Amino acid sequence: MPTSRLPGFHNLTRAERLARIVAETGLGEEQAARLARAAEVDGDLAEMLSENVIGVMGVPLGVATNLIVDGEEVLVPMASEESSVVAAVCNGARACRATGGVTTEADAPRMIAQVQLIGVSDMAATRAILEDRAEEIAAICNACDPVLVERGGGFRTFETRVAGEFLVVHLIVDVRDAMGANAVNTMAEALAPHLESWTGARVGLRILSNLADRRLVRARARWRAGEIGAGMVEGIVAAYAFAAADPYRAATHNKGIMNGIDAVALATGNDSRALEAGAHAFAARSGRYGPLSRWQRDAAGDLIGTLEMPMAVGIVGGATRAHPTAQAALAIMGATSAGRLARVMAAVGLVQNFSALRALAGEGIQRGHMSLHARNVAIAAGAEGDEIERVAREMVARGEVREDVARALLHGGKG
Length: 415
Ligand code: MEV
What we know:
Elements: H1 14-25, H2 29-38, H3 43-49, E1 61-69, E2 72-79, H4 85-95, E3 102-106, E4 110-118, H5 123-132, H6 134-143, H7 146-150, E5 154-163, E6 166-174, H8 181-199, E7 202-208, E8 216-223, H9 225-228, H10 230-245, H11 247-267, H12 272-283, E9 293-297, E10 303-310, H13 318-322, H14 324-333, H15 338-361, H16 366-380, H17 386-398, H18 403-410
Antiparallel strand pairs: 1-2, 3-8, 4-6, 4-7, 5-6, 8-10, 9-10
This protein binds (R)-mevalonate.
């Protein structure tokens, strides 16, 4: 039985840590060697980015083709382990090229930091105190990040909300090309002692909100009925109606959107958990969880898709700057501002959603998905080298992509 108590583990070298894990868990030699090999190129970088590193988990990086966003052609790097995510964007984007691709718009990059005030007995009086200090609040926040201010960003305003028994101060900050978590958290922490001394309240949490609803992005595209078929337009509109009526379906509908958005986030070193949190909180803003996108038929019978959601992403700071792959991904996209990145990501989310709904409203997703997934199944069944392709192809031809079939094919059986 291994112990999870490993004092000094973080002080070991990567190789020593791996050896320790092998000793504790009985991990096979071959598996350990595989972990060590996978970290040969990027192990040192991984250690800079995270802690207690023993390896690097490689995720395939693909490039989605065919996308036009606001009149500009764009190649989009996507990191995803899920088969068919990249292919779905390629196909969906190709199908709306004739109508000019996706048009988008993004709000100014404003993030919210929350400061929780505890023990406020008179909410209105405390609010008034803060109103009187508005200029000082701005100055304290902006002093935290003169470079941001120089670049045209910085503190914009503050608001107060009552949440349960607490008065909550929201600092609204324009973070320019950053995701902004560090900038706004620093401001919230710097302001906290001042808020305590002005109001007599005690400060609790000081942290950004991932419900970044001051930083929304919108995307819109049209797919011609002549291109996808009038029946498909109807099918997708009905799929949307299902998601609008049922949170169980809306969760999966939105998962499809996030398949694309998270893949671009990962490729560009952005925080996919922050995006997920923001997306789902936004999807539930009415009190009832719903779809982030809408699908309608226009007067000409064409399909119109629109998407609106928070998009807190950056091109500076954090892993985006530190990770050469993220830098390369941004260079491939030609994303020179956080706004452009956010708009391309919204376009990817919308197109991804289109392709998922097209498959679901048509033949279902399994045939396309499974043929792309067949190689994974073959590997899981123990196929190696040339066997992988042979077994995958045979399973697809039979329409039976399953591990038991792969195993039987490997061992010369009929499956
Ligand atoms: C699978 O990763 C995503 C889908 O389930 C999305 C959807 O159902 O809309 C296909």
